[in-house]
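Project outcomes to date are best conveyed with an example. Our students and postdoctoral researchers have been running inverse folding experiments weekly, and each run begins with a structure described purely in tokens. The record below, which covers 356 residues, was selected by the lab manager from last quarter's runs and is presented without edits.
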């Protein structure tokens, strides 16, 4: 009797679990929310550093009140971090091809110096409050999220628990992983596909150009000679800002409609042939991405939804977790002797084992 019942209940239990699994799968597929990477969690610092997110938010409210342009700087920093050997804060290392000490990285990456200072200041406050348990990589991810929110964009929970990498981002890795602004949609799509980002992710992430500024050197090749896909008035205005062979590299807003607001106007710009870079405008020219651009231009809710999904994917690329990497004491430098120390420990352990 008892064995009968249990053998009956096993397939019953199994089919229940299967149904549950299937419904879970279809729900997450419908929302498209990416899975949380192994080692990261939404509650990582809930007990060990409950004030973490409010420290970050409060400081950024002050920083952006002084200069809202810094929001763009921080968002771009997270992108550069994640695309070059994963979100491991290698972008912050003095000695990386985009780090604060690098003045002539090819391409001149023009990351804002102030963004590095903002990260350092928050990192200092967090470590003072909670001890050295929060990585620079997590702080970069949180500041990017808050940059979006405080500029009017969507809010989302950031999976935390990243650790800081110990290897520099080389010039070659930087060049190979960050697509240039003169790339067309084909090459942007294939470059991001290598990072498991699809066409929707690519169009959504490019929407980060709804805030921030760009230097003339990033787009003058579209002015002299003038790119046929560019709106005439827009081109004329850009030529005034960026004269040919100018000795100073001027800057301009990336989104002419609402330069400091995180909204869907970037896509409206593209539909009006007012995209700044080839990598922007070609998303509207290319038939594979044109429909996505239009759908975001007419529906900001849809853009926000897809942008959050893409940011969650980007923010978890090749993360360092667990006991790998380290928690840097200074975001610009690896903890001194850390690799040396661990190899000393390894040697000591081997020594003891061989003496047993
Ligand atoms: C898809 C390929 C991308 C290309 C080719 C690209 C290229 C560029 C270039 C050339 C600049 C201007 C740099 C300058 O002239 O000073 C820029 C600025 C910016 N990018 Fe991108 N980007 C891409 C994707 C992204 C992504 C995925 C994000 C974030 C999610 C992002 C966020 C930003 C922001 C916020 C700025 C303004 C920075 C500031 O004002 O300091 N970009 N991008
Ligand atoms: C980029 O070039 C500008 C102007 O030439 C310079 O002021 C800045 O320090 C450079 N930044 C980087 C990261 O190379
Ligand atoms: C970097 O790339 C250049 C050109 O592609 C190549 O000649 C050089 O050997 C590379 N350097 C390293 C350290 O991989
Ligand atoms: C896009 O750029 C790549 C690399 O420069 C080039 O080979 C390709 O022909 C271009 N595609 C289109 C459709 O222009
Ligand atoms: C800019 O420089 C190019 C190449 O050096 C030259 O051919 C051109 O005449 C210059 N244009 C102007 C407007 O000075
Ligand atoms: C806009 O997108 C949202 C989110 O996907 C969707 O729920 C809504 O129905 C769309 N609105 C219109 C008018 O299509
Ligand atoms: C952090 O590291 C950088 C690079 O080694 C160094 O210049 C800076 O002084 C350090 N900051 C502190 C507060 O120790």
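After processing, the design step wrote out the following sequence:
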């Amino acid at each position: 009797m008892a064995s009968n019942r249990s053998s009956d209940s096993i397939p019953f239990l199994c089919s229940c679990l299967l149904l549950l699994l299937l419904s879970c799968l279809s729900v997450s597929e419908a929302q498209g929310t990416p899975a949380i990477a192994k080692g990261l969690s939404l509650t990582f610092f809930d007990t060990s550093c409950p004030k973490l997110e409010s420290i970050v938010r409060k400081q950024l409210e002050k920083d952006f009140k002084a200069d809202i342009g810094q929001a763009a700087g921080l968002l771009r920093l997270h992108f550069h971090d994640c695309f070059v050997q994963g979100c491991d804060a290698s972008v912050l290392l003095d000695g990386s091809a985009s780090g604060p000490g690098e003045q002539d990285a090819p391409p001149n990456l023009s990351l804002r110096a102030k963004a590095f200072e903002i990260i350092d200041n928050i990192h200092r406050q967090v470590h003072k409050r909670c001890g050295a348990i929060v990585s620079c990589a997590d702080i970069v991810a949180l500041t990017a999220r808050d940059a979006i929110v405080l500029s009017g964009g969507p809010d989302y929970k950031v999976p935390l628990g990243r650790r800081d990498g110990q290897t520099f981002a080389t010039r070659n890795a930087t060049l190979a992983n960050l697509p240039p602004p003169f790339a067309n949609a084909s090459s942007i799509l294939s470059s991001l596909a290598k990072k498991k980002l699809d066409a929707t992710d690519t169009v959504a992430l490019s929407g980060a150009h709804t805030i921030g500024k760009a230097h003339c050197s990033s787009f003058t090749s579209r002015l002299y000679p003038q790119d046929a896909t560019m709106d005439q008035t827009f081109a004329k205005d850009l030529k005034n800002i960026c004269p040919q062979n100018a000795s100073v590299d001027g800057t301009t807003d990336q989104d002419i409609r609402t330069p400091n607001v995180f909204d869907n106007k970037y896509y409206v710009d593209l539909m009006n042939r007012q995209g700044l870079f080839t990598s922007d405008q070609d998303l509207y020219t290319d038939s594979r991405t044109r429909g996505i651009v239009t759908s975001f231009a007419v529906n900001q809710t849809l853009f926000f939804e897809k942008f959050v999904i893409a940011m969650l994917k980007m923010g978890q690329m090749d993360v360092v977790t667990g006991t790998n990497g380290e928690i840097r004491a200074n975001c610009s430098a690896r903890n001194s002797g850390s690799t040396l120390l661990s190899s000393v420990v390894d040697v000591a352990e081997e020594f003891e084992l061989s003496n047993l």
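Residues 244-245 surround 2-acetamido-2-deoxy-beta-D-glucopyranose (ligand 5) (CB under 6 Å). The CA atoms of residues 80 and 285 lie 26 Å apart. The training component of this project remains on track.
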